[in-house]
Design goal:
The complex is a heterodimer.
Chain A (H helix, E strand, L loop, with lengths): L4 E3 L2 E4 L5 E6 L6 E7 L6 E7 L2 E4 L8 E4 L6 E5 L8 E8 L10 E2 L3 E5 L1
Parallel strand pairs in A: 2-11
Antiparallel strand pairs in A: 1-3, 3-8, 4-5, 4-9, 5-6, 7-8, 9-10, 9-11
Chain B lengths: L2 E4 L4 E4 L4 E3 L1 E4 L5 E7 L5 E7 L5 E4 L2 E4 L9 E3 L8 E8 L6 E3 L3 E6 L1
Parallel strand pairs in B: 2-12
Antiparallel strand pairs in B: 1-4, 3-9, 5-6, 5-10, 7-8, 8-9, 10-11, 10-12
The chains are: A mainly beta, B mainly beta.
Amino acid sequence: EAGVAQSPRYKIIEKRQSVAFWCNPISGHATLYWYQQILGQGPKLLIQFQNNGVVDDSQLPKDRFSAERLKGVDSTLKIQPAKLEDSAVYLCASSLADRRRNAEQYFGPGTRLTVT
Amino acid sequence: GDSVTQMEGPVTLSEEAFLTINCTYTATGYPSLFWYVQYPGEGLQLLLKATKADDKGSNKGFEATYRKETTSFHLEKGSVQVSDSAVYFCALGMDSSYKLIFGSGTRLLVRP
């Protein structure tokens, strides 16, 4: 079974530029998550999708971050414009989570973003 | 709000030593508890979980018991190996959602 795929693996941009990350979840997984992991900290949930609908985006900085999950499969996370404090690893995860509580989340390898 | 606190690292041990990584939580309800591991250059992987009080999760020689009275979920292993070197994250998940709240992680270094 293929895991969660993310691209690119690394990205370096200057502040005020824009960037986009892509995620392809495990086939059949209805729920998709984007997390931000700042160096030395645990992952923090940015947004959670159930199929193509948003379940939780309470911690997403909506003035600069946006995310979409068209057709309930792949997802993109965009930052525009980027700030220095956005330097982090952006993790995508997916889970079945249809009627089961706290179903296991499967994580991708992450995209390491450096904003200079 | 809900939160997870785990011991700061790095934790440095010799091979075959006993490991304990402390984790405590604060939650308004009755969460499920998880330990995730992140090996160098890899993504997060679920190591073990427990869904209710007094449950013991175990995997690959690691164990953790869900202690409601002390709001703790400490990770233990009787004999660590060099290959256990990684960052370990404690996390909680509430039944009302599928969101995970992570601790800050503890880096484990095992020397031969």
